[in-house]
Design the sequence.
């Protein structure tokens, strides 16, 4: 994620439960689209807004990786 | 010019929109517009925050019919809402969300009753009626208002419909990935459908899979109104695309390579629209056929030093363009990027001077400057950087303070804390010195 977004942090500095949006890591919607592309390529999983739990998926690194782990096709 | 109809649809049963539960007829739409207008408070101006594009369109139409002005700021940060309150003390907010953060009196979008069959008339709107006010970032940090009249907006989108070939009576359905709250989505997804007798798709799809779903949910022919960021994601996602019959892109120029790849995948023409908040749209091109832009009929470019103004057709007073332009022949021109002070990140524009003003106004910041790195890869988004002198302040606090004022896409990445800015002897901060500072740092980082 750090690589694809060119972020100014190291992997160790991202707290698993810190918010990805806003005050935490400070991701914005362009970043989310980039992350979604990487996720679709690496894990064969298309993220979608339609599902009711979507706001939770990007809540933190932990919720994002839980979602990927549950839905991945490769 | 006296009055112009709210929509160019005529028959009561013609389809003006598609929402989750199916088609909305003109009769139903006008009935809902009337119901919403009856609920409006006395205030003369509103912030229409409806995320659903159909509800946004009902809110806009109700405002027009009730003689109220829709305010379209470029972002909705707490500070911008405070500034709007100061400019328009009677403003209220129309929302279709339970969690709307806008600090204005709120009107919740209501549940609508079915239409009454016997009452039916398309409202006629005075051409000189003020419909909307759009805002650009002023150099002193205060948003600059640009009022739009009904005649100007209608003229602009009717010219656009002709360029896009949407007036063939198909009827088309427009799916947009851009929100209707900004000038591009406002004109090209809502007003364009209204004034070409076509239908609005209610969705605001975000992920590539959402875009496919929104397209598949409406009949063909379909027009996809989008931006380079979303189109690239859609192409890269490798999904099976539903039939798309025409594509429109704006906010930033599309590379010829990406345009070719999109046309090849969709088997449909892709057009680009060029314009600005101040002028509305003024030109179009098909990037796979021509790098030159063609002005809309009746428009002319006027030289003013090194920059250009545009006038004619729907542009009521000649307006300066903030991009570097090279006119060629017969109303055609080439675009050579932005004028130095203006940054454009994923279609959001901000003046560098105003970003610097806001940065230096944050308590604890002694000195600071934003820096726009050279764009290296046309497909990737280049982000702003900034360096600051702010002893005792950390990045998190500074970014939180900036987030109050500016859209997150303008937050600096990297944000560099330094002891002093590389000012020259006259106290000026040449871009070359800033560039060297950031280059030095990235060499250190990769070493």
Sequence:
């Amino acid at each position: 994620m750090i690589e694809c977004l060119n972020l100014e942090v190291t992997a160790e500095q991202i707290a698993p439960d810190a918010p990805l949006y806003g005050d935490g890591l400070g991701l914005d919607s362009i970043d989310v689209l980039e992350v979604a592309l990487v996720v679709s390529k690496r894990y064969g999983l298309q993220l979608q807004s339609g599902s009711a739990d979507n706001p939770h998926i990007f809540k933190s690194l932990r919720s994002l990786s839980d979602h990927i782990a549950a839905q991945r096709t490769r | 010019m006296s009055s112009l109809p709210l929509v160019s649809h005529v028959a009561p049963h013609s389809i003006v929109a598609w929402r989750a539960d199916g088609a909305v007829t003109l009769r139903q739409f006008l009935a809902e517009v009337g119901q919403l207008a009856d609920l409006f408070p006395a205030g003369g101006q509103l912030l229409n925050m409806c995320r659903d594009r159909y509800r946004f369109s009902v809110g806009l139409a109700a405002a027009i019919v009730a003689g109220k002005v829709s305010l379209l700021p470029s972002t909705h940060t707490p500070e911008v809402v405070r500034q709007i309150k100061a400019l328009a003390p009677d403003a209220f907010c129309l929302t279709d969300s339970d969690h709307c953060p806008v600090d204005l009196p709120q009107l919740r979008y209501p549940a609508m009753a079915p239409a009454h069959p016997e009452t039916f008339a398309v409202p006629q709107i005075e051409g000189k009626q003020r419909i909307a006010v759009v805002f650009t970032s002023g150099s002193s940090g205060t948003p600059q208002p640009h009022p739009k009249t009904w005649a100007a907006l209608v003229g602009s989108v009717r010219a656009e419909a002709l360029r896009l070939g949407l007036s063939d009576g198909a009827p088309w359905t427009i799916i947009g990935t851009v929100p209707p709250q900004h000038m591009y989505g406002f004109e090209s997804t809502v007003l364009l459908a209204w004034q070409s007798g076509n239908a609005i798709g209610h969705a605001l799809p975000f992920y590539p899979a959402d875009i496919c779903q929104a397209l598949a949910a409406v009949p063909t022919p379909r027009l996809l109104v989008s931006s380079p960021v979303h189109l690239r994601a859609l192409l890269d996602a490798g999904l099976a695309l539903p039939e798309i019959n025409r594509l429109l892109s704006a906010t930033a120029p599309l590379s010829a390579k990406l345009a070719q790849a999109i046309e090849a995948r969709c088997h449909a023409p892709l057009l680009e629209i060029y314009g600005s908040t101040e002028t509305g749209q003024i030109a179009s091109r098909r990037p796979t056929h021509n790098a030159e832009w063609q002005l809309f009929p009746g428009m002319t470019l006027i030289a003013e030093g090194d920059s250009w103004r545009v006038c004619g057709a729907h542009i009521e007073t000649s307006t300066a363009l903030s991009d570097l332009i090279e006119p060629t022949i017969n109303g055609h021109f080439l675009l050579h990027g932005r004028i130095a002070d203006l940054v454009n990140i994923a279609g959001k524009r901000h003046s560098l001077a105003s970003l610097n003003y806001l940065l230096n106004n944050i308590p604890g910041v002694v000195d600071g400057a934003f820096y726009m790195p050279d764009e290296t890869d046309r497909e990737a988004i280049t982000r702003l950087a900034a360096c600051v002198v702010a002893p005792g302040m950390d990045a998190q606090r500074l970014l939180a303070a900036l987030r109050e004022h500016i859209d997150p896409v303008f937050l600096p990445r990297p944000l560099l804390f330094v002891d002093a800015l590389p000012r020259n002897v006259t106290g000026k901060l040449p871009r070359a010195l800033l560039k060297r500072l950031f280059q030095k740092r990235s060499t250190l980082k990769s070493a």
Summary: Chain B touches chain A through 29 residues (CB under 8 Å). The longest strand of chain B covers residues 130-137.
